[in-house]
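Re: the pair you flagged

First of the two:
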Amino acid sequence: MFFRYRINSAYQQQLKESGKYHLLHKVTLIAFCKTSLPMKTIGYHNHFRVLEVEDYITLCDDLSIHTIELEKFVTALEKTDKPLEKWSYFMKNCENLESDSLPPQLDTPGIKKAVKVLKAFTQDEKEREIYESRKKALIDQASLISDNYNSGLEKGLEKGKQIGLEKGEQIALEKMVKKALQKGLVGNYCWD
């Protein structure tokens, strides 16, 4: 099932090796559905949680699933004033919207960006590949910079430790020789 995969994926991605479960953040899945859900629901927005069916006790607050059934969303554009209504209208009518001529109700930075991304995906395949390649290149570049920084930092720390150990050994040796000379245990010899 799609929901299960997305929720498991979102939850598992937070865990690192030897991670602590109590440090996991809540996961909220928002699903815009073009058609109605297979079960009978009343409103267009439904909020599901994991409950014990007899006593309606919530299993945990970490999981929340919101469905927006676009088929049931009938609010006119002029009456959309809440963010959920604006996004629902956008999702239902996105094919007919342009980022440079959005109606005032939808003229928000988030929806403008969504229109641009949507247009990139609906362009011809070559344009979409260019968009995806550029996006991947930016992610790869950020990752490479981070990896190089961390690698360089580790190498620098290791080199610093090595130099510190060598310097410390030399200072200790010089002190021992000085003490030995002061006590007359070692003579001033010159070796060729």
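Second of the two:
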Amino acid sequence: MSGIQVFQTPLFLRIKKKLKNNQVKYLNEAIKNIISNPEVGLQKKGDISDIWIYKFKMVKQETLIAYQWDKKTKTLITLSVHENFYRDVKKYKQF
């Protein structure tokens, strides 16, 4: 996995900063899964077709990570529970 760069959007960093230590442990494991196999998530269709979504459990609650990737880079876009998640992803895409 040498040479892979992982970027985090300001939105992702803002959300991550608010997490508790036990939540960060689950998040880090999910990020490792995405880096090692970026196709582990589901590619979305339509106007967000270049976005992939990875679902995982964070302290008994289903959480979603939106990300983009190519062979050399992984970009973590946002992290949230399902409510309003796709709305936030579409807002990001407008920038």
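The beta strands are 5-8, 42-43, 52-58, 61-69, 73-80.

-B.
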